[in-house]
Structures are given as C-alpha cells and as structure tokens.
Amino acid sequence: MNDLRRLPVTAIPSLALEGVGFAHRGQTLLQPLDLRLTGCQRTLVMGPNGAGKSLLMRLAHGLLVPSRGRVSWEGRPPRQAMVFQRPVLLKRSALANLTYALAINGTPRRRRKLLAREALERFGLAALEKRPARVLSGGEQQRLALARAWLAEPEVLFLDEPTSALDPAAIQAVEDAVLDFHRRGTRILMTTHDLQQARRLADDIVLLYGGRLVEHSPASDFFTTPASAEARAFIRGELVW
Amino acid sequence: MPDDANAFQTALALIMGGDPDLLGIVMLSLQVSLTAVLIAALIALPLGAALALWQFPGRGVAIVMLNAMMGLPPVVAGLAVYLLLSRAGPLGEFGLLFTPGAMVIAQVILVLPIIAALTRQQVEELHSEYREQLSSMGVSRSRRIPTLLWDARLGLTTVMLAGFGRASAEVGAVMIVGGNIDGVSRVMTTAIVLETSKGNLPLALGLGIVLLVLVALINAAAHLVGETAQRRLG
Amino acid sequence: MKKTGLTLVAVGLTGLSLGASAQDEAGFITLASTTSTENSGLFDAIIPLFTDKSGIKVRVVAVGTGQAFEIARRGDADSLLVHDTAGEKHFVQEGYGTERADVMVNDFVLIGPGEDPAGLSEAETVEQAFGRIADAEAPFASRGDDSGTNRAELRLWEAAGVEPGGDWYRELGSGMGPTLNTAAGMDAYVMADRATWVAFDNPQNLELLFEGDDALFNQYGSVLIDPERHPHLKHDLAEQWHEWLLSEEGQQAIADFEVKGQQLFFPNAAE
C-alpha cells in the first residue's frame, strides 16, 4: 500500500481566477481578485471566519458561479474532488458510499468492490466496511470522505476546513492523507485557520481578509517575510478570528 | 347500547371463523390497494423527485396543484374513472368497469398525488443537504433521482403507508367504479357500507375492526422493516 | 403517445382483474338493480338457481334507480331490474331498451316511532296517513335521492295534497338503509319498501304503522337493453335471464324467498 502509484504525469491544467468577485443579495462577499494556481502545489488558503475562504473554494471548484470575472482552466478542466468541513455521506454502508462514487465516474461494476476495499484499507477503514456511514465517528467519516475523493483520482483536490471539527489523532490522519494525495500528483487547495497546520503542509499561502485577497506568496516567504500588515498581524496571532 | 360489545365479538368471530367470503373480501381489499400503491409509487416517486430537482417555469403552480390533489374527494376520482371506463367513455372497449382493475385505477389516482407531493418535499429536503457533494462528484440530475430516492427510503416508506392508508380506507371511488359486486368487486369498505345500509351495525362495525387490524398489521410490518434498516444503515 | 400509455395500463389491468375469473368470463352478465332487491337478500336466493340451470353468473350492481338507469343508458350493464314503471317505459321509448316486463311486486310501508305522535295507525288511506304527518308536522325522513322509492313518495304527497317542506321534512339524499338508520336515530316517520324494512336489523324504536293501501303497490320490471345501441353487451345471456325471471321457475323462486318467515316479493309476470 505504501507504493503510491503516481497519476499520469501530464501537466495539470492551471487554474486562473480573473477579476472574480461574488455578491449575494446586494452584499459583496468577495472583492474582485486575481489568482493563478499551477503545477502540483499545496496551496493553503488562510484567513479569519467570514474572510471568504469557503467562497473562494466553491468558486474555484465550480459549485458557485462568480458574480463577476471568470474562473477558467487552461486547456481542459481537470479531474477534481472536494472534501467538506462536515462530510456529506450517503445513508448507506461505508463500502456502498465508495462503490457509488466509482459508479458515478464510470468504473465497471465488477471492479468497484475491489477498488473500494483497497481505498478503505488505505484509509484504515477496512474493518468498518459494512457499517452505516452516518454512524461512524467524525474522524472516520472524514477519512471515508477522503477515501471517496481518492477513488476519483483527482488532479486537483479541494479541502474546506477538513480538520476543524476533529480531534488531534484524526487531524493527523487527514494531514497524512493530504500528503499522500500530493505525493500521488494531486494539486491541493485547502482552507484552514490553523497556523501550525499551514506551516506543516503549505507550499504557498493565500491570505484572505474581509473578503479581500491580501497576499499570495510562497510559504517560506509568508512566514519569514510577510509582505502585508495583515499577514504580519496574522502570524503574530493578533488578527481577531 | 349492546351494539359496541357486540361489534368486538362479531369482529373476533369473523377473524376466528375464517369465513371464506370474508377472506375473499379481505384478500381483494389488500390486492387492490397494494397494487394501486405499487403502481402509484412507480410513477409518483420519480415524479416527486424530478419536481424536487428541476427548476422550470410553472413549477410553483405544479406543486400547488399536486398538493391540492391530495384533497381530491374519492367520489370525484371515482366518477372521473367511471366516465373514462364506461362503455360510452374513451376506454370503454376494455370492459374494465365493475372489475378490480377499475378499482385499482381509481385508487392510483387518489394515491399518486399524496406520494408525489410528499416525495417532492422529502427529496427536496435531502437534496439541500446533498447538493454540493453531488455537484462536486459530477452527479447528473437524472442520476440524482435514484440516489436521493434510495437515501430517503425510510421517510418514503411512511409516505407509501400514507398512500396505502388512503387507498384502503376510501369507499367513494371503489363503490362507483367497482359496483360492490358480491364475489367480484366487494372490498372491506364497500361491504361495511352495505351492512350499514342493511342496519346490521354490529357486523358493519366488526368488519371495520377487521379492516383496522389489517391496516395496523401492514403498518407494523413496514415499521419493523424500517427499524431494521435504520439499525443497519443509519 | 398518451393514449397508448393509457391503453397499455388498461390492458395490464384487464389481465390482473380477470386472472381469477378468466374461465367463466363469457358466462356472466352485469345486472343494474336497486338496493332494495340486493339488501333484502332476494338475489342471493334466486340467482344461484338461475346459475345452476343456465351456467350464467349474474353480477349485481345495486344502486339507486336513477343511477341504475344511467348505468344502463351508458351501456355498462347487460340488464336492468328496477321499480319505476314510468321511468322504465320512458327508457324503452327513448330507444335504450327493447322490452320491459312486469316481474314482481312488493309494497311500501310507513314506518315511524312506536308512540306514533301523528296517529298513523288510525288512518284509513295512505293519503290520510300522509296528511296526518303533515298536520302534526312530525319529523319525516325522505330519501331525497330521486330513487324509485323517492319518486313514489313524492307522488303520494301530491295525492295527499301536501307540498312537503319545512323543518319537519328532512331530505337525506341517501339510500333506503341509511335513511332507515337516520330515521331510527331521530324518531322520524319514513316510507320504506317492505323488503328492506323486514330485512333491516337496526329498527330501535321504529315500528310498522301503516300498510296495505293499493297506492303503496311497488312494481318491479325487467328491461332488455337495445342491442343496436350497445352491440358489445351480452344480449343473449341477458335475454336468458329476462326470460327466466318471467318463467314459471323464476316466478316460483321469487315467491319462495322469505325473510324472517315472511314473503317479501309477489311474482306477477303476465300470463
């Protein structure tokens, strides 16, 4: 299980957000911003609650249509998956949740169980395959959601605060999984408000504040020589969440 | 007031006696109402789910109409089916009038709006929870229908029971289109009406109790199935 | 498309509904008749005799006379047995029926509370009886459903020179049985056919108070339906039923039928 079969080494299409803004009922929730994500980077989106992190994820993933500007992939749209803060699992067994995902992406019926069991094992859920997904613990549910995303073989994986409701052991498991995805060749776009988590995982950091993109810089620069006043305050832990 | 005690004794005697006529009536009641619920469900479940998933002009009107149809008086449904199946009507050539088939059709018309309207509501609720996840996975709208119906199955069992309740309890429609013919189209409710009109109130009430027991048994069975599913699948 | 779908469903249901009775499918007729004949148990007594002899089953749809005519008019019944001579003749004149024949009579009786506040038992004619009810303004329960019984009742009020109305005259819009149930509940006078009354099991305080006037005579007739208008009907079988009712054997069967030791229908076919 440890040998990570890398995804085919084709360049992952770059994601470009050009002048993307979002308003709801006359209220601007996200100021127009430009963002370009390329390669197999792990990008961590940070900022206080209400900064627009989740909004940015949903716009980038295509769950929401921007009020202005445009979101585009260079060339073709890549295979994508998203893991939510509160995993939405179907009211079925753990195994059935995975075979369902495989059915959706067109995997032939006879291969589904085998692949699903492999994924369950990879995420430490093999013993729970018959259990109803909805009665699993929070950490187990999030791992199942990750296993489901794993089976989609995404080139880009979105994670929206995937660890904010979990205990430390479960957080560790999610972070390990994120690293596994990355080693397999998946670009990561993840939100968090945990500074330490960002230090552990990020290649580059996007900082949002009050619906504005404040800074986008490589992680090393961000933590050592932040360019913006907000970033400096944020790193010192002075920004009010 | 000896009639009330009498009715329970009569009911008990009816159940214990295993009278073949009564058994025939009970079986026909079950057969007609269960068939009607099954046919109605086959149409109404996907219909209700589609209504929950698709936005289209006039959707609000369609939902209001569907909800209103839940209150359709059985007699009106019966009359409409009668005119449809009558020899002088558009489907007269099939000779369905005064047969159990006609009763099934009438009950389908009564039950379909209930199942469709309640399914619409339940599926819409579930979909608001699932929407982002399913969109993220790229699940098409038409593919979502079976997904949501299956995941809403517990609530939908209750919906089907509500439909069965309406079907097995109504008398106005089956009386008109079935004709209450002895041994052919006589069901529990029409038999109760007949005995009442003969002034045989204990027997009428006894039959009513038998019907109640029957409906209770079916509900209990569905409840048990639901409980088991709940425990197994959350 | 829509029609095809409906047709498919209809064909499917035909299969379902006939499953049990496919073998005798050709051997039954549908008879539209009144609740009085069905509720009294007459059909249960005589139809098996006919079926034994002819092999033909008779499916009885028992409704009010008005509805029975309508069912027959639309071609939904093979034969008609009702008790509204004027209506039956009109039905034949309109061209829906080819032949109408007297089958039997029973009679109407006046029922009321045992205390008899209007003094019906002292009346000598039915006109007097109706007049007394109106004078006393005693509660009277009318079928009010345009049935044969209802029509006969209205003719009798007219003969008594009374325009029924007011608080005491209650039109129920129900069949004979439900009307009796209601009358028993509110201690009202009511006119019923004897068959339904004798077979009725819930009289409570009601008693038979007046009977025997010729004007209370209730004629039943059997009507054959015009084959040209409704060629799909089972006219041959219906005719066998019609003939049997009028035959010596059928007439005897009617005479033999008793409820609580009492003969209810008196055969009176011509010849």
TrEMBL record, chain A:
InterPro entries: AAA+_ATPase (IPR003593), ABC_transporter-like_ATP-bd (IPR003439), ABC_transporter-like_CS (IPR017871), MetN_ABC_transporter-like (IPR050086), P-loop_NTPase (IPR027417). Its main location: membrane. It comes from the Bacteria. Residues 15-235 form the ABC transporter domain. It is a peripheral membrane protein. GO terms for molecular function: ATP binding; ATP hydrolysis activity. It is found in: Cell inner membrane. Keywords: Amino-acid transport, ATP-binding, Cell membrane, Membrane, Nucleotide-binding, Translocase, Transport. GO terms for cellular component: plasma membrane. One of its GO terms (biological process) is amino acid transport. The keyword Translocase applies. This is Amino acid ABC transporter ATP-binding protein, PAAT family (TC 3.A.1.3.-). The lineage of its organism: Bacteria, Pseudomonadati, Pseudomonadota, Gammaproteobacteria, Oceanospirillales.
From TrEMBL, chain B:
It is found in: Cell membrane. The chain crosses the membrane at residues 22-54, 61-85, 97-118, 201-225. This is Tungstate transport system permease protein. GO terms for cellular component: plasma membrane. GO terms for biological process: transmembrane transport. Residues 26-222 form the ABC transmembrane type-1 domain. It is a multi-pass membrane protein. It comes from the Bacteria. Keywords: Membrane, Transmembrane, Transmembrane helix. InterPro entries: ABC_perm_TupB-like (IPR049783), MetI-like (IPR000515), MetI-like_sf (IPR035906). Its main location: membrane. PROSITE patterns: ABC_TM1.
Automatic annotation (TrEMBL), chain C:
Pfam families: PBP_like_2. The lineage of its organism: Bacteria, Pseudomonadati, Pseudomonadota, Gammaproteobacteria, Oceanospirillales. Residues 25-249 form the PBP domain. Residues 1-22 form the signal peptide. PANTHER family: EXTRACELLULAR TUNGSTATE BINDING PROTEIN (PTHR37945). Keywords: Signal. The keyword Signal applies. InterPro entries: ABC-Tungstate_binding, PBP_domain. This is Tungstate transport system substrate-binding protein.
